[in-house]
């Protein structure tokens, strides 16, 4: 019996890990909780004010327009059309969201982080070079070139990106494990904050001259 207890401990540890691991928002305590922007007549609060269930209609669970390409005429050559709780109130408390991402030829969805969600990305059209980088100290890159029909997963909170490596437009659909995944675009946050981060911070952090920092800050 004594020899089996380490194995038992291991199994119990795994079971506890599985029990306490959650890859999405907390599970809802009711069927739904359609978000309403005003607090005039809310029923209860769980993330956002909830619409009175008696007045909820089918349209509260519908978003129209994800068939429409985003406008990729910008510096990055990409456009994200989010379907988060702000666009689809019925998502409130349900722990999922979507987005459509359009890419012009050679367009980039720049390195960014979703602080509250993992993401599964389905490529519908084009070829995307995608990847994510693990946390310190390894900072290991996992990257792959994807074709239509391929799905790639980006773990929650890790820096990731998608680059259209084809000469045609590309389209992808993202699914995310939060009604409000959050987006932190690395370059914008670091070099385009308002007010700007003191350049002394960035000079040391990036190990470059102040002129390089000024140049980078000027881009945002
Ligand atoms: C796309 O965005 C560009 C740059 O903001 C703008 O000039 C252009 O009118 C937009 N195109 C459409 C179809 O909205």
TrEMBL record:
InterPro entries the record matches: Cupin_1, Germin, RmlC-like_jellyroll, RmlC_Cupin_sf
Disulfide bond entries: 33-50
Annotated binding of oxalate, by residue: 109, 114, 119
Record: residues binding Mn(2+): 112, 114, 119, 160
GO molecular function: manganese ion binding
Signal peptide stretch: 1-23
Pfam families on file: Cupin_1
Record's subcellular location: Secreted, Extracellular space, Apoplast
SMART domains for this protein: Cupin_1
Annotated SUPFAM superfamilies: RmlC-like cupins
Keyword Secreted assigned: yes
Keywords: Apoplast, Disulfide bond, Manganese, Metal-binding, Secreted, Signal
Record family assignment: Belongs to the germin family.
Name this protein carries in UniProt: Germin-like protein
Organism expressing this protein natively: Genlisea aurea
Lineage of the species this protein comes from: Eukaryota, Viridiplantae, Streptophyta, Embryophyta, Tracheophyta
């Amino acid at each position: 019996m004594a020899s089996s207890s380490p194995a038992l401990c291991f199994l119990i540890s795994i079971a506890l890990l599985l029990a306490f691991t959650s890859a999405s928002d907390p599970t809802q305590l009711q069927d739904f909780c359609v978000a309403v922007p005003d607090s005039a007549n809310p029923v209860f609060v769980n993330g956002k004010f909830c619409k009175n269930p008696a007045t909820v209609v089918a349209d509260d669970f519908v978003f129209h327009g994800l068939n429409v390409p985003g406008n990729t005429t910008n510096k990055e050559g990409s456009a994200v059309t989010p379907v988060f709780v702000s666009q689809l109130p019925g998502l409130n408390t349900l722990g999922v969201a979507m987005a459509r991402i359009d890419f012009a030829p050679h367009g980039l969805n720049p390195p960014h982080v979703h602080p509250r969600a993992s993401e599964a990305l389905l490529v519908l059209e084009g070829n995307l070079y995608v990847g994510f980088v693990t946390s310190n100290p390894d900072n290991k890159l996992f990257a792959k070139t994807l074709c239509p029909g391929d799905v790639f997963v980006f773990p929650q909170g890790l820096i990731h990106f998608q680059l259209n490596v084809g000469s045609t437009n590309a389209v992808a659909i993202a699914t995310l494990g939060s009604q409000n995944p959050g987006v932190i675009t690395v370059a914008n946050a670091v070099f385009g904050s308002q007010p700007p981060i003191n350049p002394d911070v960035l000079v040391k952090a990036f190990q470059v001259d102040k002129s390089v920092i000024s140049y980078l800050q000027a881009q945002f």
